[in-house]
């Protein structure tokens, strides 16, 4: 009888989660239920599972709407019925084809309302009658239709409070006040669950309607096998041909990677190919190979990472560049006969080339068979407060106050209502979006399982997320992009363009085994390098004196929050530096984790300890693996694993204390750790970056700037280029490109760095120059480039016309004469036909530092001098960064320029870690505890005088700050007669601030981590 139920997947309309919807139905004894979310099947598969758990017959349907207008409700007679409607919705969402007012759907029942019924009804078409409409059925024109009528008891909310929530959602969707929300935009107040007995009583005088409703429900079924493989089955035509091709390609790759007589590699390949064939994944490997082959043909660089790098077959196919034999990576972490869930490859491309790869995939495998996974973007409490507040009509200043202090208790009743409903909306889906990387390539058309949508990014998405995809049997291909790879790729191209040198950067032996690379690595000299440039990572590298590939692989994983949260990052550092001063917890830790000093560093380590120390089953190990990958959603299953672990430990005779400590470490890995192959992939890319930084530092930093850096702002990479011998030059219309470019050791900053210059103008300036020659003068430039006075002034201030030899002051006066009252439509008539009148301009003197302040205003950092040159004080500190290790436990005073600071929560409040450069340009780090920050807080970017105690922790010095003060710049000479503006420029100097809101990491004494076998 419930043919029209909405969940909150009816976005900004429904108020019930699938769980709540099904639970309420169950509590009322309802035995059949139809889910009809608006224009979506997002919740259908979860609905099926939840209903069957509760003994309810699930029936899928869709409520079709055009805007807020209800057209009809479709109810699938069988699974094929969903496919029919999916096709219509896909055409509407992706091709702009209107929804039909009257569809032709063979495998669906179609229900119209009394208000929009067609003149005649087909066999599968009916009219839904609400309880409040029963009184009008006595009219003669309706009596003949009673045999074609069914009960329409929509469900949208559960309680009166949720009806109000529904109205708020509708106001948000319509961007209007609640008080102005039209009634046509909301559902009826009767759209909640009423008991079957109540409904039957209401329709008792119309038994035909009651019976017809029951007949429809009885005729429907929703049969679907979950976990049936649904990816494209074969790359060739058959499974046998797939295996033949995969085998041939693998052995060709074997010769390339290992030579002809590597017995160990041969044995590993045979073993893997057998498992791949048994699990029917030959086609999956070949499709991935095909994508890589296209990428190589295009000259693109890729990185295959994740657990796929455990496979020697993937290595021989060129999908990954990690040798699993070198690092003892076991294939079973990626694929094994006991593993129920499918594997996936994570493959990165440069952010500039990824879309070309995506276009190839969509064209090669067909738009009906390829789509991105969807994802639900949820309402977040802080942002929803603004949305709800606007619906209630709160003014902007109150909304600002409320969003900054969401937990504050307000007396105002309206504000209290906003807070109450804001809390209720938390975690509600707000809109559907694209998974950042997960692509499905299906055997059957995807519309068999979902309607497709077209988000702004231009690639279709399915209406459900990766978790549902996995449950349905789809393995996703993760096609990712990153800026680090873009930097490497661009550097290699730039070196070939500017120096004529070709570098095979994918030959990792030139970087991994390079002596100077390892020296830079151990000193943390890694700014600009993928994954290893952050202050925390550079500090870790120095503490470990990391000077080889295997230690870097471990470092890439122990920096992750899971290992750090357990306290094992600190312990790893200690054991690495003091390998004779600890004992293994248990012999299993020595046997299984000897390479990492008995510490769980990778996901595989957790599984090893769970199986070999905890005695867990392979199935429990797989649940742990998925939890660590962030792919597991069942808390009940994890709790069962935990119970099994402790029970098994007791049976094996382990002490309760040791078992608790081991499980504490296991638990910390959930969702925050790497598998070893993933760390290895990152380490290879880090080495590639580092190699280029060392041997081609200027080209590398230019590429880092053009890829918009990494951890730091552009200024830091400009500084690195300068420290490497580069001459940094401001943009010039005759030398600069849109991007930053290099001529010898001269680096011209790109026009794209001028924020107030439109990107199309930044691109047009070099294009026009290449086409018609250099600009002879500013007047010639203005004739050829359609700029207004504001853009022209920015170019003058930054020195883009310095080739003319005319001072900025004079250029500005000329610009105002040229374009002062200029109208765009007059460009051709005036600029091309009338020569400019010659004026004699007065000679205007400029202060030596005016250019620096112009640069700060436009770029946010000075180019023609350093920030230290602009200080009022001549003091430069008595200790430099390179000497800090000599001052352990001593108080020092330094003058430094702030690069970045990281917020870190502690039990006593907020603290920060700062990164700075001294006057010599070298980096150092500081720690600022809450007690210090109370009196001496950060005051934005700029130079500071620092006083503190040096603490050298395993080769890495940090200054614990006791006092600090921001040092003033000289007055801005451009505003010598304007007191208010003389110190404005200093406020435009930037800093990098990273915020973390995780729980505080425990201190060493809080863990009480044993280094001796003192467990009872």
From TrEMBL:
This protein's UniProt keywords: DNA replication, DNA-directed DNA polymerase, Nucleotidyltransferase, Transferase
EC number: 2.7.7.7
Transmembrane segments: none
Classification via Pfam families: DNA_pol3_alpha, DNA_pol3_finger, HHH_6, PHP
Domain of life according to the entry: Bacteria
Repeat among keywords: no
Domain Polymerase/histidinol phosphatase N-terminal, chain residue ranges per copy: 1-68
Uppermost EC category: transferase
Reactions it catalyzes: DNA(n) + a 2'-deoxyribonucleoside 5'-triphosphate = DNA(n+1) + diphosphate
GO MF entries: 3'-5' exonuclease activity; DNA-directed DNA polymerase activity
UniProt-listed InterPro entries: DNA_pol3_alpha_NTPase_dom, DNA_pol3_finger, DnaE2/DnaE/PolC, DNAPol_HHH, PHP_dom, Pol/His_phosphatase_N, Pol/histidinol_Pase-like
SUPFAM superfamilies for this protein: PHP domain-like
Single GO biological process annotation from the record: DNA replication
This protein's record includes keyword Nucleotidyltransferase: yes
NCBIfam families (UniProt xref): polc
Protein's name according to its UniProt entry: DNA polymerase III subunit alpha
Lineage: Bacteria, Pseudomonadati, Bacteroidota, Flavobacteriia, Flavobacteriales
Gene name of the record: dnaE_1
């Amino acid at each position: 009888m419930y043919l029209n139920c909405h969940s909150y997947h009816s976005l900004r309309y429904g108020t019930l989660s699938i769980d709540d919807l099904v639970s309420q139905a169950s509590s009322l004894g309802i035995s059949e239920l139809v889910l009809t979310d608006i224009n979506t099947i997002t919740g259908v598969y979860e609905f099926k599972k939840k209903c069957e758990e509760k003994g309810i017959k699930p029936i899928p349907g869709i409520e079709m709407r055009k805007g807020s207008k209800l057209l009809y409700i479709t109810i699938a007679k069988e699974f094929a019925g969903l496919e029919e409607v999916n096709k219509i919705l896909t055409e509407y969402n992706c091709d702009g084809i209107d929804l039909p007012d009257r569809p032709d759907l063979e495998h669906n029942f179609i229900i119209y309302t009394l208000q929009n019924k067609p003149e005649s009804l087909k066999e599968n078409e009916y009219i839904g009658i609400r309880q409040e409409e029963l009184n009008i059925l006595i009219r003669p024109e309706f009596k003949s239709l009673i045999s074609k009528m069914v009960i329409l008891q929509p469900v949208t909310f559960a309680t009166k409070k949720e009806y109000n929530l529904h109205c708020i959602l509708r106001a948000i969707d319509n961007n209007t006040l609640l008080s102005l929300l039209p009634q046509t935009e909301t559902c009826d107040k009767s759209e909640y669950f009423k008991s079957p007995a109540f409904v039957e009583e209401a329709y008792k005088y119309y038994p035909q309607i009651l019976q017809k409703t029951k007949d429809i429900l009885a005729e429907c079924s929703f049969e679907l096998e979950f976990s049936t493989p649904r990816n494209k089955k074969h790359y060739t035509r058959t499974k046998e041909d797939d295996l033949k091709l995969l085998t041939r390609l693998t052995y060709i790759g074997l010769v390339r990677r290992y030579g002809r007589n590597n017995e160990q590699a041969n044995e590993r390949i045979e073993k893997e190919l057998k498992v791949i064939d048994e699990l029917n994944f030959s086609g999956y490997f070949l499709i991935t190979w095909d994508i890589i082959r296209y990428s190589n043909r295009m000259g693109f660089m890729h990185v295959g990472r994740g657990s796929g790098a455990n496979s020697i077959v993937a290595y021989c196919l060129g999908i990954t560049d990690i040798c699993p034999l070198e690092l003892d990576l076991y294939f079973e972490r990626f694929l094994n006969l006991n593993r129920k869930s499918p594997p996936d490859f994570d493959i990165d491309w440069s952010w500039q080339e990824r879309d070309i790869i995506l276009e190839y995939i969509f064209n090669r495998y067909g738009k009906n068979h390829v789509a991105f996974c969807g994802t639900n973007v949820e309402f977040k409490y802080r942002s929803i407060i603004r949305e709800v507040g606007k619906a209630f009509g709160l003014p902007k200043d109150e909304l600002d106050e409320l969003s900054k202090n969401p937990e504050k208790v307000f007396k105002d009743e309206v504000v209290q209502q906003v807070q109450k409903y804001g809390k209720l909306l938390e975690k509600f889906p707000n809109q559907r979006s694209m998974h950042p990387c997960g692509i499905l390539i299906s055997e059957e058309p995807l519309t068999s399982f979902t309607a497709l949508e077209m988000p702004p990014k231009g690639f279709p998405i399915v209406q459900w997320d990766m978790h549902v995809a996995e449950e349905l049997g789809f393995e996703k291909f993760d096609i990712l992009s990153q800026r680090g790879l873009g930097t490497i790729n661009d550097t290699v191209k730039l070196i070939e363009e500017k120096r004529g040198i070709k570098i095979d950067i994918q030959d990792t032996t030139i970087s991994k085994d390079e002596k100077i690379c390892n020296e830079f690595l151990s000193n943390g000299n890694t700014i600009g390098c993928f994954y290893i440039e952050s202050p925390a990572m550079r500090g870790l590298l120095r503490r470990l004196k990391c000077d080889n590939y295997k230690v870097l692989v471990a470092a890439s994983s122990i920096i992750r929050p899971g290992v750090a949260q357990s306290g094992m990052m600190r312990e790893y550092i200690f054991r690495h530096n003091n390998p004779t001063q600890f004992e293994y917890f248990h012999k299993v830790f020595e046997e299984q984790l000897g390479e990492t000093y008995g510490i769980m560093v990778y996901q595989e380590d957790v599984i090893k300890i769970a199986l070999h120390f905890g005695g867990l089953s392979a199935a429990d190990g797989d649940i742990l693996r998925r939890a660590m990958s962030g792919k597991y959603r069942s808390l009940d299953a994890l709790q069962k694993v935990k119970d099994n672990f402790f029970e098994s430990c007791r049976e094996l005779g382990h002490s309760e204390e040791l078992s608790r400590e081991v499980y504490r470490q296991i638990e910390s890995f959930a969702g925050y750790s790497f598998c070893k192959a993933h760390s290895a992939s990152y380490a290879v890319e880090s080495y590639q970056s580092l190699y280029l930084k060392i041997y081609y530092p200027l080209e590398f930093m230019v590429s880092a700037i053009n890829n918009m850096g990494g951890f730091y702002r552009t200024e830091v990479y400009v500084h690195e280029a300068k420290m490497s011998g580069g001459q940094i030059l401001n943009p010039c219309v005759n030398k600069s490109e849109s991007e930053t470019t290099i001529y010898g050791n001269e680096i011209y900053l790109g026009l794209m760095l001028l924020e107030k210059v439109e990107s199309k103008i930044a691109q047009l300036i070099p294009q026009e120059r290449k086409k018609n020659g250099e600009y002879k003068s500013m007047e010639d430039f203005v004739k050829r480039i359609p700029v207004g006075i504001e853009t022209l002034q920015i170019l003058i201030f930054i020195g883009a016309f310095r080739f003319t030899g005319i001072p900025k002051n004079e250029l500005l006066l000329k610009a105002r004469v040229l374009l002062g009252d200029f109208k765009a439509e007059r460009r051709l008539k005036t600029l091309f036909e009338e020569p400019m009148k010659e004026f004699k301009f007065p000679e205007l003197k400029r202060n030596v530092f005016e250019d620096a302040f112009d640069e700060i205003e436009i770029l946010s950092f000075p180019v023609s001098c350093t920030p230290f040159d602009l200080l009022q004080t001549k003091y430069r500190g008595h200790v430099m960064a390179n000497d800090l290790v000599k001052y352990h436990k001593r108080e020092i005073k330094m003058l430094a320029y702030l690069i970045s600071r990281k917020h870190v929560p502690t039990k006593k409040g907020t603290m920060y870690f700062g990164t700075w450069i001294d006057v010599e340009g070298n980096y150092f780090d500081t720690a600022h505890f809450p007690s210090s920050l109370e009196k001496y807080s950060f005051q934005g970017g700029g130079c500071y005088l620092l006083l503190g105690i040096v603490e050298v922790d395993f080769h890495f010095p940090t200054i614990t700050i006791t006092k600090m003060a921001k040092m003033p710049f000289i007055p801005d000479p451009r505003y010598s007669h304007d007191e208010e503006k003389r110190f404005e420029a200093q406020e435009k100097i930037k800093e990098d601030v990273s915020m973390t809101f995780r729980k505080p990491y425990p201190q060493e004494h809080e863990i009480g981590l044993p280094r001796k076998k003192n467990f009872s």
